[in-house]
Amino acid sequence: MADSALRILLSLVPPPESPYIGERDWDAVFADMGTRLPNEYVDLINHYGAGVWAGWLKFFPPGRSGRFGMPEKSAVARDGYRTLRADWPEEFPLPVWPEPGGFLPVADTAHGDCLGWLTEGHDPESWPLIFWPRSNDQGPPLTCDLAEMVYALLIGDHQKFGFPNGEDEDDPESKLPDFEAFTAAGFDRHR
User: Hey, is 58 helix, strand or coil?
Assistant: First the structure.
C-alpha cells in the first residue's frame, strides 16, 4: 500500500524540483541514527525533502548535521521522553531507541507531538508508526503506512490518529493538499 499512497501524494502535491535532504547521504544518516530507517520514510524524503505537511507535520532534513537536522532533533526528543518516563512511567510507557522496540522519532507537529516508529524487530520495514502525543494519552501504533498518514493529514483527518480535526472538520475532502518545502538557505540563517 505504501507505493500506491505515495503515488497518490505525488499526483496531488508535486514534489519540489530540488528536495532538500541535507548535505550528507543516507549512509551517514543511518550511522547517526544507529539503524537503517524504513524505506517508506526514505522514499517520502527523497521525493519531497524536508518540509511541513498541511501546516502541521514537520520533517527535518535527515542529512543535515547539527541542531536543525533530523538526527539531532530525534535525539533531543528521545532524551525528553526518557526524562518524562523516569518520572511518570505510567504516562510515558514506550521504550526509547536504542532499547528493544524503542520509540524512534523522525518528525514533529506544530503542537509538539512526535511521529516515529517502534523499532520492534530487526527489519525496519516491519516497524509500526506511532505518535507520541504531547497533550493526549499515548495511543496504540498506527495501522497505516507513512504516506497514508500524510494523505489523511492533508485532507484534515486528524481524528484517525487520535488528534482533534482542524477548522474544516465538516468537509475534510475540501482541504487543499499543502506541502511547504524547506531549503538549505532557510536553515542556514539559523546558524
Answer: strand
- 116-156 residue pLDDT tens: 999 999 999 999 999 898 878 888 998 888 998 888 888 77
C-beta separation of 115 from 161 below 8 A: no
Q: Which grid coordinates are listed for 53?
A: 505537511
Exposure string for 122-151, b = 16+ CB within 10 A, e = fewer: eebeebebbbbbeeeeeeeebebbbbbbbb
**Residues contacting 123, CB < 8 A, separation 6+:** none
Question: Is this model's pTM higher than 0.85 or not?
Answer: yes
DSSP, collapsed to helix, strand or coil, labels residue 147 as helix
**How many CB atoms lie under 10 A from the CB of residue 15?**
16
